[in-house]
């Protein structure tokens, strides 16, 4: 009985939670800038655009959130952890980026951005997302490759380059056929 109550409480918390959003901001924290932004439900693991993962949660009954970055895919063994105040801009040392951090299920993603969204198994609830503004290049120095995230006529593409050779690949996916992943471009 005790375990059922705990499961019900956790379900209630997760269902009523809002995404914790991290939007890249300028050095002086006055405006949104190009780059990679992301959001996730509290206590959800987000695979980011390179080879790592991000985990975030709100501090109970406080206007603060914690973010942890890991090199692995499962949000284990964090290499960086930092606390931010909600509804403010702050510098995340690990990614060397200013982010405006807020909670909302309607994140402000810039128009014509490549967006990767992870939904639950029924494709009803968004659990996490990350986006790259059109033309953003992410370099993976370990694998000696770069990925450019593109929206061409509002269709998502990646252009992956390694050793001077590039491959442009269409990436659009509907949720039902991709294990809960939707890749699109924002309008």
Relevant terms:
single chain; 187 residues; mainly beta; seven-stranded antiparallel β-sheet; four-stranded antiparallel β-sheet; 1 helix; disordered N terminus
Protein described:
With 187 residues, the chain is mainly beta. 7% of the residues lie in helices and 51% in strands. It has 1 helix and 15 strands. It has one helix at 2-15; strands at 20-25, 36-40, 44-47, 53-58, 64-70, 78-85, 88-92, 97-103, 113-119, 126-133, 136-140, 145-152, 155-162, 165-170, 181-185. The strands form 3 sheets. A 7-stranded antiparallel sheet has the order 7-8-1-2-10-9-15, with no helix packed on it. Strands 3-4-5-6 form a 4-stranded antiparallel sheet, with no helix packed on it. Strands 11-12-13-14 form a 4-stranded antiparallel sheet, with no helix packed on it. A hairpin with a 7-residue loop joins strand 5 and strand 6. It is globular, with a radius of gyration of 17 Å. It starts with a helix and ends with a strand. Mean pLDDT is 88; it is low at 1-15.
